[in-house]
Amino acid sequence: MSEQNELLTLLQISDSAFPTGGFSHSGGVESALKHNIVTNKSELKDCFSYCVENAGSFGIPFVTASYNACLEIQKLVAIDNHCDVCTPNHVAKRASTRQGRSMLETCGKSFGNSQMLSLLDQLQCCHLPVVYGACCGIMGIDIKSTMTAFLYNTLRSSIASSIRLDKVGPLEAQIIQTNLQKTIPDVVNRYRYRTIEEACIVFPVIDLIQNAHDNMFSKLFYS
Amino acid sequence: MVAMGTARHGHATVVLECHDHCKESEYGAVEVVTLKHSYPLKVLVPEHTGNPKCKWIFPIVFGGGLVGGDNVEIIIETKPNTCGLLTSQESTKVYHCEDDLLTTQKMNYIIGDNSLLCVLPDYCVCYKDANFLQTQNVQMTESGNIILLDWMTCGRSALKEQWLFKSYKNSIQIDVGSNTVYKDSIHIHDVPGLKMKSSMKNYQVPNIDWECYFYAPAVGESVKTDVICTVSTLQKGGMSGLYLRFLAINTAQAYTVIKEIVDPLLPLLGADPFQNKYG
Prior knowledge:
The complex is a heterodimer of chains A (223) and B (279). Chain A is mainly alpha-helical and 223 residues long.
């Protein structure tokens, strides 16, 4: 793929108009606010960073593995199943499989790619990192851009959820985004060579608090 | 005499077997058929602990804890129709590690048909500069059962030593036959720009993992924030289980959740391994 086309594809799949359902998930931010884990702006910003770090330490190994195996269906199925086994947190599992399935379907249909559409039937769980890596691999997007975009999406979605929870304004959110996304290249470098056996959670509190999402009586997000 | 920092490699193996003819669904009178341990590990298996159908196992470490660079490995096997309890007399202390030393603890649980292993230890506490790696592997059959508690605290909080260990890496994996049905890996440490201390807020007892297979206690929803408890159900390849985690401001609060799980087990265990420990 030419550099320009690669950029266009990446812009398209990262666009908030690309319907993967990312905006119905807060990645634990809503639960953290309700449970008083996050009580001020500084803690909110840290909370976004924890989400990005966990997406790096846990998600990036799966993105990389499925990117490298994007043409081998059996391997992808095994990676997807392993991702499922490693996600006992049912809220995280729900967030990951719902977004993964939507992403696979949207990519398959919008790019008219039969390979992606057939993956929809073959993958048993469709976890987001696995689907993300596989789709970008199939479309020939560079691996480093894939990882960067994956983490960008994680950060963007959690910040966006706090706008809708009325904790930050839209412009303030962009200032936070600018500051926090500077760490993304470092996060990519920390985890880019990790195997799926090494995938782990670095900040368990945000993961645990996301797990408590269903304990809340009223909620705006799915996770 | 062993000086601090000298590497020690301890191994221990305990095998439980049932000798009477009991029904498939029952636990029989249990006997220890293998008991091996090497320095710095020692394993105590008291003769009488309440219920003759449940064997209590206490591994202890010379020096009162794991010295920097220690490597210990424990294998517990429950043969068909046996019931065992792996517990402790006090918390597992992981002392500081100098230079690049790594302290490791590897637990292997092999669980036979219709047997039950309860792993109910006291919490793990990592001292300042501790560098700890713990792996717990469960190999079980489809009719085996495990209840596994794993919990840690921030450090010696009375000495204001909170979240000052170097690294705490913990991985728990459950295999049924050749299939992995559960894996949970965490690695708590500081990363550039982000401190584990601030991520923990004022919680001192986080990351308590319970994996209960074939066991479903009633756990109510918690809205208090002194202790936050989460529950997920696990369904994989015909196996069912419960994944319960909590976050508590102190061990007494953590124990309110632990008690709910342990209480229904008391008739089987014969006594409470946490009696008079956490109020």
